[in-house]
Amino acid sequence: MDFGSPRLYEIELWSPSGSRIADISQLCVNRRYTLQRNEAETLTFSVGLFKFESFCAKHLGGVDPATLLAPYVTDVKVKRAGQYLFGVQVVDVSFTMSADSSSPGQGGRGTDFMVNITCTGYLNLFKDRYTSNLYTQVERTAIATDLITTTQAQTNGSVGVTVPAGQYATGLLTDRTYQRDNIKLKIQELAALSDSPFDFAFTWDKQFKTYQKLGARRQDLNFIYGGPLGNVAGFTMSRSGINLFNKVYGIGSGYGTDQLTSTQGDTASQLNYYLRETISQFNSVVLQPTLDQNTMTALSLAKDVLELPKVTITGQMVGKNFLSIGDRIPLQVQAHSWLKSVSGLYRIEQMDVSIDENDFEREIVLTFDNYGVNQSE
């Protein structure tokens, strides 16, 4: 590794109480992370068993390595270019070792086993939390924030997430009745409602924030695949109708004749692709307007042929102004008549980044979507 200049990426370990423990950047290899809109981040990396044990002994006063990288205990904060990018929690520490004929050596005098670490973002702190609550004419992002604060108010329920003032509000009041419903899923459902979607994110320091939409219109970037001006390393796309449905039967709470139902269809899609029906279960929904909203959202997400272009770039293309989830970037596909309809403005839905041993972003895979994107922006 050549780090004559400051590191591009830094990886820090933090305690559950919010105290910085150590910078382990120099020990981490095989680093990869994924950012996705309205979903938990993931981070994977590896450390050498002997190197990490030696680091704990020599630089951290002999602390037990098992307590330093502990599932559901240790937080990991990732910096890029000196700024915190995101925070995650360790969820898995995997040892894959043969018979131990190794020895703690350097420069070929021994073999160091690798320990693989998996971490996920703070949204997943609520994937194992449930709520039973009634909201009557409450603004949607206010419901989301209340779900966060209410579950943490339980005995032993705090995970250290705070909700700062000044949240984005959709302006729409809604009713919701939750009966042992999963909090992570219900926040995601609120954000995806087709009549007024919103974005949310957890900051590196565990603040929950809501936004009208994440990211920005990037005037400095224009991705081109094909032709003499092509500037992306790779392009993939599936044009699929496998999961296309244009008439959705929403099933809510109740039984028999008392069961809540909603039927929503899209005529244009039916004329283009034939009538294709599906049933969506919303078992906890007890109000007709809520069921109608959920069913319409399911229809809007399923009524068209799905096109999710993926482009592969390197860190050289990005420059100082790094990418963010939600950024809107033009994509042009040239020299291929079959793909000419793909060109347009897209939003980054997911970003998978692989970092080599010299801190270079050797591969950035961007998953694009143009659903709800204003092409004239």
Give an overview in words:
There is one protein chain. The chain is of the alpha+beta class. Helices cover 16% and strands 36% of the residues. The chain contains six helices and 22 strands. The protein has helices at residues 49-59, 65-68, 140-152, 183-192, 267-273, 288-302; strands at residues 9-14, 20-23, 29-36, 42-48, 75-80, 83-95, 114-121, 130-139, 173-182, 199-202, 208-211, 223-225, 234-236, 239-240, 247-251, 261-265, 277-281, 306-307, 310-313, 328-333, 344-355, 361-369. Strand 1 (9-14) and strand 2 form a beta hairpin. Helix 3 runs antiparallel to helix 4 (183-192). The radius of gyration is 24 Å and the shape is globular. This is Phage protein D. It comes from Williamsia sterculiae.
Offer a concise description of the structure:
This is Phage protein D. This protein has 377 residues and is an alpha+beta fold.
Q: At the third CATH level, what is the topology name of the largest domain?
A: Thrombin, subunit H
How much helicity do the residues have? 10-25%
Q: Please give the CATH architecture of the largest domain.
A: Beta Barrel
CATH class of the largest domain: Mainly Beta
What class, by secondary structure content?
Answer: alpha+beta
What is the terminal separation in angstroms? 42 Å
| Total discrete domains | 4
Topology diagram in text:
Elements: E1 9-14, E2 20-23, E3 29-36, E4 42-48, H1 49-59, H2 65-68, E5 75-80, E6 83-95, E7 114-121, E8 130-139, H3 140-152, E9 173-182, H4 183-192, E10 199-202, E11 208-211, E12 223-225, E13 234-236, E14 239-240, E15 247-251, E16 261-265, H5 267-273, E17 277-281, H6 288-302, E18 306-307, E19 310-313, E20 328-333, E21 344-355, E22 361-369
Parallel strand pairs: 12-20, 15-17
Antiparallel strand pairs: 1-2, 1-5, 3-4, 3-21, 4-7, 5-6, 6-7, 8-9, 10-11, 13-19, 14-18, 15-16, 19-22, 20-21, 21-22
Helix pairs in contact: 3-4
